[in-house]
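User: Modeling request: complex.
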Amino acid sequence: MSQHSPSSGEATPPRAPPRSLSQALLVLGKGGVGKTTIAAGLAALEAQTHGAAIFVEFGDGDAGKRALAGAGRAVRHVVIRPIDAAQRAAAPLFGSATVAKIVLGNFAIKPLLAVAPAIRELAMLEVVRQLAADNPGVRVIVDMPATGHSVAWLRVPTQGRDFLGSGPLFELCDRIRRELLSPGRASIIVVSLPERLVIEETLELCAAVARETSLAVDRIAVNRVPVALPREALTDAHALAAAGGPLAGAAAELAVVLAAREAQRGEAVAALDSLAGKEHTVWHLPLAPGDPSARDVARWLLAEGAP
Amino acid sequence: MSATDPLVIVCAGGGGVGKTTTSAALALALARAGRSTLIVTIDPARRLAGAMGVSITDEVTPVALADTGDRLSALMPDPRRSLHTFAEQLFEHEPVAKARLLANKLYIGLADAAAGIHELVAMNLVARAAERGSFDVVVIDTAPSRQAVDFVTLPGRLAALLGGRTVSWLGGLAERANGGASGGGGLVGWGAGHVESLLAKVTGPVLVRDTGDLFRDLAVVRERFVALTQHAAKLLLGPRAAYVLVTAPTAAGRDDVQFLHKRLEKLGPGARAVVMNRADTVAAPYARALRGQRAVTPALAAAMAVLDDERAVRAAAADGLSAELRARLPGVPLVRLPFIESTAPERVVASLSVELEPHLHTLLPAVASAKRP
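Assistant: Request completed. Predicted assembly structure:
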């Protein structure tokens, strides 16, 4: 089956040229939309075109490793675990890595860290900020945690800053805000699917980003858009169903399936074009019946005009 | 363990495998089969609520769907309200401490960041619903992550935290900070006092004071916390609970199901069954009926060929994963469900519920089949 770009041949409304993307790309989306796959594809594309890219993953590193298979050595895969991040972020605050380790390993602080999410999030964002600062000119692609939490993540530095008022931790929050979570420093890419409920959540996510952070959504990647079928197929199925006879029932069922598929493509295009009108650029990526590789995704992204 | 406790089915799985729709379909099938069923989502996403026409509240709401005869209810607590609900539950009998807590800025800041708390609150609400209601089965849709099943140990971890030295030390922080002394005098070397003064330097006095206050108040309600969470822990870890792993024929689906299976073995309950979505082996009857017929136009034939290609790729991946799961998870039954080609969530739920009907005994906890064959 050919893997042509699913948006080809569709009229797109004229729009303002998209904002260019910043050094850090924060890839957001709810669980299961293929966030890691898209982030890995972006990293592979970046490595192909600019010779280097950093792919940042929070967690155990399995998902990124799988998604990056075949992406080449130019992509550096950085896995950030909460406890390491806390120590790395705390080291400059306490003046030394050893002191940070002692304080964080304290009998009272350690269990507190295990249940206090805001601190972990702050620490992980600080590591991303450090990575971007230490590698000027190299794009840092961050596979963010699933939806609800990712906006909460982006809010943490502002909340922390407002809450603390002064002190080194206050400065840390402020630095993350200024040097990572501000326009020109980071771009937000939201991954979505051509499914009604997922699109609704994507729209909510875009609104939440605009409302609750100083960033805006720069690109939307609609993943797994089914390939277009011949335009006459649906009409033919309806005609066959209407003609009666032994095949009418089967043709009616096929018509339902074909209509659902067209609706899926149509819904994605309509809902997201309403956003596109508001200066977002939408990338459409095809539905691959198997697992696409980072290189496949890079190729599709390139065809859609990314980055 | 009360004999009237409901059976519990916990659905766990990675993202994108159709876990939410599968949970809803399972609850619908159980309700149709005559069991009074409660579907609970602790997934912050609102997909299921939308699909079932239910609102997001801390209250159990009836689901109006055909053929369920009022036997289906839903509980979908709002994660943004959960810390507040939790505080209300904990401090029900401690109005003064509660007022102080609600005014604590640290507490206010935590309100929407505390992911684990939400799952705990959801479980407490389930326990309360189980005590009040007369549910035969509770189906729980967990968050789409590898850590999703860890919530069963959260009551224990938090109780340990609240009961341990941590809380009394952190609670003491407030008094010392308010009193103006920065270190714990009398402590030598790298003891608590030193850590404390370092911490105060780094975080500033406000955080130290508010953290101290927060934990002093939490210490007051420790026993209440243990009592509240005990029933939830029992429901989740007792013999009347079963864990169903939901997966799909993708590399991520495969890795996540194996990870979760190991995790469940470690936590105790193990996996009752695996449900694999998008795993249809044969072409749908309509496709078989139309194939090769002269009335089928070239456009239709081309469209059907694409659909059939996609199905064949899915089927090959599903067969591969099935073989792998049979080898790696011996003795865990595998239920394969077809791909439902539709954009309407309620339609997908309805279709899957029909597919699940023959498998209800495989998915219900083992005690259920022992009692009611």
